[in-house]
Amino acid sequence: MKIPYSWLKELVPGLPVVSELEPILAGLGLPLEGVEEVAAPPAGVLLVAVKAAEAMPGTQLTRLTLDAGEHGERVIASGAGNAVGLPAGTMLALVSPGTELGGMTYGVRALQGVESWGMAASAKELGLGESSAGLMLFPAGTAKPGTPMRELWAADHVLDVEVTPNRADVLSALGLARDLAAFLKLELVEPAAGPQAVGEGEIRVSLPPKGIRIERDPTQKLRFGCDRFVARTVSGLRNGPAPLWMQRRVTLSGMRSIDLIVDTSNYVMLELGQPTALYDRRDVRGDQILVAFGLRQGERVRDLLGGEHEVGPEDLLILDGAQPEVSTVAEAFETAGQPRPGDTVLGIAGIMGGDHGHVRADTTDVVIEVAHFDPVLLRRTSTRLGLKTDAVYRYERGVDPLLPERAAARLVGLLGDAGGQVHPGATVVGDPEIPGRIEATGEQIRALLGMPVDTGEMRGILTRLGCVVEGEGDTLSVLPPSWRVDMAIWQDLAEEVARLHGFAHLPESLPTLRVHESNVGAEKPGVARATLRRTLAGIGAQEVVTYTFTSDEEAEKARTERPGVRLRNPLTADRTGLRTALYPSLVKAAQAHAKGDRALIFEMGRIFPASGETERVGLLMRGPLAPRTDQAGIAGDFRAFKGLVESLAGTLGASFELRQLRGEAVPSALHPGIAGEVVWNGQSVGWLGALHPEIAQAFGLKGDTFLMEAALPLPGREWTFRDPSRTPAAWRDLAVITPAGVSYGEIAALLREHGGTLLESVEPFDVFTGEQIGTGNRSVAVRLVFRGDRTLTDAEVDPVMDALMGAVRAQGWSIREK
Amino acid sequence: MQHEAIPEIQAATTLEALQTVKTKYVGKSGLVTRELGTLGKLPPEERKARGAEINAVRQAIQDALDTREATLRREALDAQLASEAIDVTLPGLPLPSGGLHPINRVYDDLTGIYERLGYTVVEGPEVEDEHHNFEALNVPWYHPARDLQDTFWLEDGRLLRTHTSPMQIRYMTEHEPDLKIVVRGKVYRYEATDATHESMFHQLEGLVVGDHISMADLKGTIAEMARGLYGPGAKVRFQPSYYPFVEPGADFAVYWDNPRGESKWLELGGCGMVHPSVFKAVDDLREAQGKTRVYEGKTGFAFGLGPERIAMLKYKIPDIRYFYANDPRVIGQFRGELE
């Protein structure tokens, strides 16, 4: 929220200088996002009065005759739209000749035959605001003609305060000043009050008699939409420019100055935090206003800016001319017999005014709406319609429900100052809900904060914040002020106490507690992840962290499942869903970097296949095992890759086995001839092999790429200590001839199955193919190691060997004789 | 004989040649040995003197042999060692060297601190439902605080978690108090990417629940973390802030006594005392699962921070996008003990 320092200073005269405010505001939970130094206009910018405005025939220009005070009568030509037909007396900002502004010096120049004396400027041209739509105009009598504008429009600092969604109460000059005054123990000067209403108002207002319940509402309350509506009237206005001081504050606060009526409405919102709406009374037919839930589903409403919105039976609207005591517009139409529903909508409540009813240049009589609406209903409508206005921003956060009467008085007071006749009466309907009483004890608050603050000081703090504090001794019975709609539970009181006592005084201690037994073991997956991660780094792999996002195209390219978890609102076309496998991320990482020629990388991350979100570890190797040097290195081939995984398993104490995959069983990611199933501590957890060359090509990778992808957590193993055996081993060699398609793993598995308790290990040491053993055959020589409780004799080993050879032959394989 | 033997010994240039000389003089049938054999033929009165004389010769030859052998052995060893010399400045057999991603390094630093304080490190799902991500955390769908967290919605109505806080709910639903956990994991925001914003980043979330947990305990805990991260001179500052699932809420900053640059306050994260409505939401979920209500009436604190921000500040990484571009020249730098 932007606010000029000078405004705050007016409300809190003792306010410290700007440079000291930053830590004070931060300490209040209102950090400054920035402070902008706003310069005054240069001395050569003069306030001058229009004497005559004449159209220049044959041009788009207006010839303005000006009273420039001591500079005499001057003439300029202006192309601004709002220069046309300017009434005499209107004042404007004139950049007089010789003035430097925005890097250029203005002079007298001839424009279509007029010796134009400087330039009449827009707010933007003067560097005072965003508006470049027309000349800055001020009411007649704003200043003596020729007065330098800077005498009335001084330099200032604009504070940009970050306001969290709970602090609706500080979304105004008064609110911010109130919090600062309470914290700094300074006097608060309230803004002028305006004429209190006396008697009945001229407008009849009816509120919805029936409430609605909305879906998924934890409060489940019946929402009536509007619990306070104040209507007042002002007549005889001449709409034109707002007073300079008001334009200045509105502009410095980051809003655009429009005209007297709109600026006054905005000014009251900036000053008090209360949004208001003003309608041209000619459009409020029958002097009746109806607050009601929506039109028929899908009915269109045109707003004052020309936008069209579809509203329905759960949107709150402001209508005119209808009969009271009906809850829907449909009913209203029936009773009032209005055939054109769109014509009667004055606005979408608390969000935006309608095309019908909005104030215009010739508006003289206005109806003022100052209401308190249901924040939830308004937010719902505004979100659905995509209409975010300054008004609904405040309403959805919570406006003081008791503020409308005060704000209405202030608003009519300002319009009265501007020449309007204020009707003394007001229409006040509704029964606003105000924050309830909160019960607490000082001890409760001290215990929650862990900070010694005595109850007396708590009373002082809460009272300074506007609470009514009752209760004896340590008991605090607190009625929060109506503007603190965020205060509801005793913990909120604790926060206020901590905030004003100062968070800086919080002591530092550590929690003492005994963790419940149900938490035991919850640390295990985390410990296993950390160990795996460090071991993978230890075997030489670099960890990567990649994006979880993917797209259909990428999944197709990687030959994996299309993303089933799909974003409703993707940011970019390559991030439309969540990955269903880890390896495409690794392949992309390998391709994008190291020029794609070498990578040994791993990732632990989550994937989102149709079977559900799960965790995976992936390892990828391509190029030489290590960065290339002049010396021969270890080739980055399949053996090296599998060796790395064996080393990993060895360090982790896991058994690791790779089972040959063939045909349909080969994952689509892999080369059909170089693919295995990873069996970790006896459980199938994933796959390992060479990336399918077509995928490699699709991702622009040349040469071999090896991959492993396995599910986490990799299972642990049961283990008990085994004393190392001191008995010598017996060994035998055996060469098994099989068809070439039989894997070593299958042979070893068969031998282990039939090796009984004596067979300790099976290790291959030679693989041979040749005509001697028949074409299409392969011989694998294995060393079998036997060990028993005592030294084994041939008589013990031979039967086992016989059994093994029998098993081999039973498979249809043969033994290669020496 | 001595005069012949000594030069011959000196002339031997190899151990084999020396052995030949040794055999010639002091071997079983060597000249000196044979001479000793002649002693028996001498008369006893001469025998002693002659014996002493021959033994002296034999001793002198043996000494010369030993000396020469030692010399030759040293020379042989020197030659062997010289022949084995290697240019050790040439590179070794290339083996890969690995490392952790900087985010996980920072995570490990952080969780290490909390593990020493007795916390359990847990993780949770990244695809969440609205209830766990928002509603149970006191952010009903219509709450303006939703605007603070732009959300990636999924076609099936679920969402990508916008913070790690839903794990507060999940963990409490599954476990009973008292408890002390930290959560690590990815989070997502519907945000265009630039040097300081990413649509995917990480958080560390802390949650402590017990009977008499105070905000001072929270501040002390953050201070422990600050000292663990930034050294014994680190200080902690709390400033009021707002997160719907805590009350009171605060933002915390750490004063970094930077040895290499400007010392300053670093805004690191948010924290606060667990909001009673969060405990209620957890008990509601527990009840729906047939578990006992055990959280209402408890107190606790929660905090959250981003490892990216810590890494960027600590290591002066200029752009958040470096973390997920996985350029080995960038992520390969974070190795070993980093001061």
UniProtKB/TrEMBL annotation, chain A:
One GO term of the biological process aspect: phenylalanyl-tRNA aminoacylation
UniProt xrefs under InterPro entries: aa-tRNA-synth_II/BPL/LPL, B3/B4_tRNA-bd, DNA-bd_dom_put_sf, Fdx_antiC-bd, Fdx_antiC-bd_sf, NA-bd_OB-fold, Phe-tRNA-ligase_IIc_bsu, Phe-tRNA-ligase_IIc_bsu_bact
Keywords recorded for this protein, A-Z: Aminoacyl-tRNA synthetase, ATP-binding, Cytoplasm, Ligase, Magnesium, Metal-binding, Nucleotide-binding, Protein biosynthesis, RNA-binding, tRNA-binding
Binding-site list for Mg(2+): 486, 492, 495-496
Cofactor binding note from Swiss-Prot or TrEMBL: Binds 2 magnesium ions per tetramer.
Record localization: Cytoplasm
Domain TRNA-binding positions: 39-150
GO molecular function per UniProt: ATP binding; magnesium ion binding; phenylalanine-tRNA ligase activity; tRNA binding
Enzyme Commission code: 6.1.1.20
Cofactors (names): Mg(2+)
Keyword Metal-binding annotated: yes
Ranges for domain B5: 433-508
A Pfam family matched in the record: B3_4
Domain FDX-ACB, residue spans: 725-816
Cited HAMAP family: Phe_tRNA_synth_beta1
Family: Belongs to the phenylalanyl-tRNA synthetase beta subunit family. Type 1 subfamily.
Name under which the protein is recorded: Phenylalanine--tRNA ligase beta subunit
Species the sequence originates in: Deinococcus indicus
From TrEMBL, chain B:
UniProt-recorded Gene Ontology molecular function terms: ATP binding; magnesium ion binding; phenylalanine-tRNA ligase activity; tRNA binding
Requisite cofactors: Mg(2+)
Any one annotated GO CC term: cytoplasm
GO biological process, one term: phenylalanyl-tRNA aminoacylation
Keywords recorded for this protein, A-Z: Aminoacyl-tRNA synthetase, ATP-binding, Cytoplasm, Ligase, Magnesium, Metal-binding, Nucleotide-binding, Protein biosynthesis
Cofactor binding remark: Binds 2 magnesium ions per tetramer.
Subunit structure, as described in the record: Tetramer of two alpha and two beta subunits.
Protein name (record): Phenylalanine--tRNA ligase alpha subunit
Organism: Deinococcus indicus
